[in-house]
């Protein structure tokens, strides 16, 4: 989503004209494509703070390391993050399973010399043991620690930005009601550290930040829920029309709906 900034002028108030009524906003969001991880559609309609560490910049540094001769980007989405982080090591591969993202990633990355591999994200990955000096991922849906450890060469590194615990729970709970403790513990950094260590990896860096998000109109909410499908599993406009209309009224009366995302920077090493 677009970066938040105090220098950015506020977006127009929802409901300020007939074109911004509930039905028009929802119809526009339903018609917008959701492939890839390009969030430019949200410009002027929603904002999200970015983590302080700058994942793409750090990723570029890892890929440029002369000691890295082969790297793998897991669950690359539409390839936008990896495309902006080159140049790459002599061997560079990426995986993606969702067909719309796969087509987008192939168009974007193949001309840059990246081999884009289609297939399920769950084990086993179609790579040999110890094939990569560096494995990376930004916002993987599931982290298969034993498989990451398997494809890493001795001394190799896993470098990633994960979605952290309780991400956008304000929005999830608006639609789904209170979420239990077990759900809240998912993706907790301590649990991820234990899983990495159980797989034989050594966690060398782990940082978590909680970041403010604002949704300025109901169209932004609909588009987000269609794009980030795990926020409200099984979301459709028809199934949640009454709740959407309620939230539209709330945003119109009170201003942006505020939620918070959580991001964790992860670096883990396979012992040499």
UniProtKB/TrEMBL annotation:
InterPro entries: 23S_rRNA_MeTrnsfrase_RlmA, Methyltransf_11, SAM-dependent_MTases_sf
A GO term for molecular function: methyltransferase activity
Record's keyword terms, sorted: Methyltransferase, Transferase
Region (Disordered): 1-23
Pfam families: Methyltransf_11
PANTHER family attached to this UniProt entry: METHYLTRANSFERASE, METHYLTRANSFERASE TYPE 11 DOMAIN-CONTAINING PROTEIN
Protein name, as recorded: Class I SAM-dependent methyltransferase
UniProt lineage: Bacteria, Bacillati, Actinomycetota, Actinomycetes, Kitasatosporales
């Amino acid at each position: 989503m677009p970066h938040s900034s105090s220098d950015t002028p506020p977006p127009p108030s929802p409901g300020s004209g007939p074109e911004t009524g509930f039905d028009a906003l929802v119809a526009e969001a339903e018609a917008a494509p959701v492939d890839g991880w390009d969030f430019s559609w949200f410009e002027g309609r929603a904002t999200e703070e970015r983590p302080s560490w700058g994942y793409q910049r750090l990723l570029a540094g890892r890929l440029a390391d002369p000691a890295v001769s082969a790297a793998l980007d897991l669950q690359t989405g539409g390839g936008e993050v990896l495309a902006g982080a080159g140049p790459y090591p002599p061997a560079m591969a990426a995986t993606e399973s969702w067909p719309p993202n796969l087509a987008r990633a192939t168009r974007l990355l193949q001309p840059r010399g990246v081999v884009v591999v289609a297939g399920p994200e769950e084990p086993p990955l179609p790579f040999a043991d110890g094939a990569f000096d560096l494995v990376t991922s930004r916002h993987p849906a599931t982290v298969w620690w034993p498989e990451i450890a398997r494809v890493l060469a001795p001394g190799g590194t896993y470098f990633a930005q994960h979605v952290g615990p309780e991400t956008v729970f304000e929005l999830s709970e608006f639609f789904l009601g209170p979420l239990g403790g077990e759900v809240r513990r998912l993706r907790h950094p301590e649990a991820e550290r234990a899983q990495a260590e159980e797989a034989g990896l050594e966690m060398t860096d782990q940082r978590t930040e909680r970041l403010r998000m604002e949704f300025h109109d109901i169209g932004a909410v609909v588009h987000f829920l269609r794009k980030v499908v795990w926020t409200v599993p099984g979301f459709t406009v028809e199934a949640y029309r009454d709740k959407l209309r309620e939230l539209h009224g709330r945003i119109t009366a009170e201003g942006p709906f505020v939620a918070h995302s959580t991001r964790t920077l992860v670096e883990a090493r396979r012992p040499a």
